[in-house]
């Protein structure tokens, strides 16, 4: 491994000051579950790593604000999110998705902010957070700004963050009567990287769908919100014909990429099938909960 400088700031602002907007070899590190393997095989050769482990404790908290929004500190380990009763109450689909997100050893170390900033299109949480309408609170030298999760990803391993910006917090708005589901297909173990992942959030009266959000990952170069599919679902019943049409619309709306987990044709079919299944799962969740009945 190439030698590098390690700095350990005591605050988020000090960490930001240690970054360089023009030098991509200077990188912040939180859990390191993605960055360290990249360094070991020589894919990434840092000149400086800025450790975030000593910054303010508030960036490791899980809270619900007075409006009912769920707030996840960017340095919160994924395992803490998985076990949080607040998350289970406010956004149970996040809890469910985390159960098969990698393995418990990774979840004990990996952080919410690092998971998103890494921008691997196979990650589980981005499509879930997109479907929930979440956004990230970002801090940099120029000040603070909000970014919708759907707008955070630029491409394969690329985000819209500047090199000297850091994610401070993830905020999930109150879901009200909405119900969500996340389904993924893995070609190996259940906690492997998915070949495709689909997240759906629905508002329904138990008969028709009044509003929908649909997001996809793993089959594309970045997580995507599928607005054409959401539009197709509005005002429709979640019957077989509608779900099938939504699956076809999802496959038509994206450019599928082949990788070691499947060919283009295989993943396109997975998109059709898993979009339909996720819609049914979210609709059935609403019926079981008694919403709109």
Layout of helices and strands:
Layout: E1 5-7, H1 12-17, E2 26-29, H2 35-40, E3 48-51, E4 62-64, E5 70-73, H3 78-83, H4 85-90, H5 92-98, H6 104-107, H7 112-118, H8 125-131, E6 135-140, E7 143-148, H9 149-152, E8 153-155, E9 158-159, E10 166-172, E11 179-186, E12 194-204, E13 209-217, E14 224-225, H10 227-233, H11 240-253, H12 264-289
Parallel strand pairs: 1-3, 2-3
Antiparallel strand pairs: 4-5, 5-10, 6-7, 6-10, 8-9, 11-12, 12-13, 13-14
Please tell me about this protein's structure:
With 293 residues, the protein is of the alpha+beta class. It has three domains: 5-51, Uridine Diphospho-n-acetylenolpyruvylglucosamine Reductase, domain 2, CATH 3.30.43; 59-172, 2-Layer Sandwich (Uridine Diphospho-n-acetylenolpyruvylglucosamine Reductase, domain 3); 179-289, 2-Layer Sandwich (Enolase-like, domain 1). It is 34% helix and 25% strand. It is built from twelve helices and 14 strands. The chain has a five-stranded antiparallel sheet. It is globular and about 60 Å long. It starts with a strand and ends with a helix. The mean pLDDT is 95.
